[in-house]
Every structure is written in C-alpha cells, then in structure tokens.
Specification:
Layout: H1 2-20, E1 23-26, E2 32-35, H2 38-54, H3 61-70, H4 75-79, H5 87-96, H6 104-125, H7 129-139, H8 148-159, H9 161-165, H10 169-180, H11 188-196, H12 203-217, H13 219-228, H14 236-239, H15 247-270, H16 277-296, H17 300-305, H18 311-324, H19 327-355
Helix pairs in contact: 1-2, 2-6, 6-7, 6-8, 6-18, 7-18, 7-19, 8-10, 11-16, 12-13, 12-16, 15-16, 15-18, 16-18
C-alpha cells in the first residue's frame, strides 16, 4: 500500500497546485476552456509513469514479466507465440532486451504511452483539463496496470484519434493496424470509427444501443456470432466468463456519462445550438464506451473493448456538466463529483485488496 499511497498524495498535491495555475481561454469556436500550466501536466504524467514502473506486480503483470525475461536472446521462444500472444508484442520484448534484461523497461514503456495519451487527450479536448485528469486518475488509472498489451495498443489508437477528427483516414487506419500488432482486438477500432463518425446519437448509435439492449436480454445472441465469425480463438475464453463487472462500476463509468450526454444533446437542441463535429464524434465515442461497459457486466471481453473508447467520457465530462446544469449548480456539483469519484477510487482499491491484487502493488526498484 505504500506505493499507491505515495502516488495518491503526490497526485492530490499536484492537483491542488494545478488549481492555482488554472486560467480561462477561448477556443476558435468561442467556447471557454479552463487549462492549467504545462508543468502540472508533466508532473501528473510523471507521477503515474513512475508509480506504474516501480510496481512489483498487479494482476497479469507477472505473466508479462516472465514473457519479457524468456524473450531475451531467444527467437525460438518468440516465434513459438507463447500464450497465443501477438508477434508484434513478442518482438518488441525481444528488442527491448537488447537495452536491458529488466522488465522495468517494459512497464515504463507501457506506462509512458498510456499516461501520455490520456494527458494529451485531456489537454487537447477537455473543457476543464485538471478536472478530466483527476477523473482519469480515479476511474481509469488502476485499470491501465492490467492488460498491458491491450492498454499499449489502446494508447496508440487513442493518440491517433486527432487524425480521425481531421479526416486523415488512411493514416488513422495505418496506426490502428500498427496497434493491432500488439493486440488483435485493436482492429475493431476501425469499426468503431465508422460508427462514431457523424452527428451525435445518429441512426448508427441507436442501432448500437439497440444491439446492447438485445445483448443484455440475450447475451449469446451477439457473443455467439462473435465467437463463430470474427473473434480469434485465443480470446474465446473471455466470452465464457459468466461474471463481468459490478453494476456500481458500470453506473459510474458508463451509465452516468451516457445520461449526461443525452441531457446535453436535448438542451442543445432545445436552445437550437449546434454541436460541433468534434464534440459529436466524442459523444458517439462515449456512447460506444457505455455500450461496451453495459455488455461488460455480463462478459469481460466487452468491458476490455472499452479500453479503446474510455478517453471519451473522461474528456467530455466537464463539458457535459456545464451544458446540463446552470452556473449556480455547477459551483457545487463539480467539487461533489470529484469527491465521489475519489471515493470510488478508494473503493476500487479496497476491492483490489480483497481480491489480493494490491498485495504485490509494491515498490520493486529493479
């Protein structure tokens, strides 16, 4: 618990300092954004990168550390595709071993990619950067210490998101294809991209929500199709999990942002205000994130697909609150929301302690 305790203290101090360095700026569209100093963003990323690098273990970290060590000067091992792992990841482990035989380099690389991706997304798209960063820490950071390959692949697709908004579709597709070398599920991001382009809550989004409802009542109707058609056999076990995430987690991470997005769009329509193309795509990405998490209550595979969309609600949350509530209410809703998210973070740590995962989330220098 020492490592995560130090991390929490450093994050809280950094957020407090960042709140004293905030300033307002106008976007070209005339909207107000609250940004913070560059050193606050750097320190935020640095704290999380160091924490994730120093950890001894967390859930599947052990398997990846074994994989890293076995890959050293051993192309036969790499080519044997142990655990059915993608060749891109194994060759990356092989190459990193030329620098050092310590798996710490692997943990550092993944932590660097993931946390820089989230910081950049918040810096570029959030209407309140510090608010979004703290929400990311509370609901997303611990998850990035598990599923290293998929988190690494998701960081690549997340950083490619600006290309999608700028309609650089070829470059976006190439980066997604590159990410799929490390985790094959990243290729689904191309399908997600096709769905999210366009106006918020368009017909494609309603079809996705309808498919989600069908799945909730008849899980095998969709999972059976995936198993028989497009899902690689090595991921079939994810579809056999009878227990997914808890409803509380799903409510906080997916249902609440989805409800705010619905109210935000209704308010915009009532005021006859146009939602920008960028916000429309982000809202649709939020919808897909909610779909994955709702389906993830039954099968873990769907929740893990949310790695590729989870930046959207984090980035949008302050804008949704501003768009749904009047100014006098926002003054207390935002602080209360941050406190509740922090309570959820503490609860998540408690659950991981009970699960036994935090036992090895301790400092290991080498």
């Amino acid at each position: 618990m020492l490592l995560i305790s130090i991390c929490v203290i450093c994050i809280l101090l950094n957020v407090f300092y960042g709140s004293t360095r905030q300033r307002k700026m106008l976007t070209p569209q005339g909207e107000t954004r609250i940004v913070t100093a560059k050193e606050v963003l750097i320190m935020f990323a640095l704290i999380l990168i160091v924490t994730s690098t120093l950890r001894y273990g967390f859930n599947d970290t052990y398997a990846y550390k074994i994989m890293y060590r076995e890959s050293r000067d051993n192309l036969d091992y790499v080519n044997s595709a142990p655990w059915g792992v993608e060749a891109g990841w194994l060759y990356l482990m092989y190459l990193l071993n030329f620098i050092t035989d310590s798996p710490k380099l692997m943990l550092f690389l993944v932590a660097l990619a993931v946390n820089v991706a989230y910081v950049l997304m918040c810096k570029k798209y959030s209407s309140n950067v510090l608010f979004s960063l703290f929400v990311y820490f509370c609901i997303g950071y611990m998850d990035t210490n598990n599923g290293l390959r998929q988190c690494f692949a998701a960081s690549i697709t997340t950083m490619a998101f600006p290309l999608l908004l700028r309609r650089r579709y070829v470059w976006y597709a190439l980066l997604v294809a590159f990410a799929s070398l490390f985790h094959e599920s990243a290729i689904y991001v191309l399908l997600i991209a096709l769905l999210v382009l366009g106006r918020p809550f368009n017909l494609k989004m309603f079809i996705a929500l309808l498919a989600c409802v069908v799945f909730l009542f008849a899980p095998e109707s969709i999972s059976g199709f995936i198993k028989e058609s497009i899902l690689d056999s090595k991921y079939n076990d994810y579809l056999n999990y009878s227990v997914g995430m808890s409803f509380l987690r799903c409510f906080i991470i997916s249902i609440l942002p989805l409800a705010l997005a619905v109210l935000y769009c209704i308010n915009k329509q009532g005021k006859k205000e146009k939602i920008s193309y960028q916000d429309g795509v982000l809202i649709n990405m939020l919808i897909m994130n909610s779909v994955f998490y709702l389906m993830g209550m039954y099968m873990q595979y769907w929740a893990r697909l949310a790695f590729y969309t989870s930046f959207a609600p984090i980035v949008l949350l302050p804008k949704l609150i501003d768009g749904v509530f009047v100014k006098s209410d926002r003054a207390w809703i935002k602080p209360v929301a941050l406190c509740l998210y922090f309570i959820f973070f503490a609860y998540n740590i408690y659950v991981n302690i009970a699960y036994g995962a935090m036992r090895d989330f301790r400092i290991e220098w080498f």
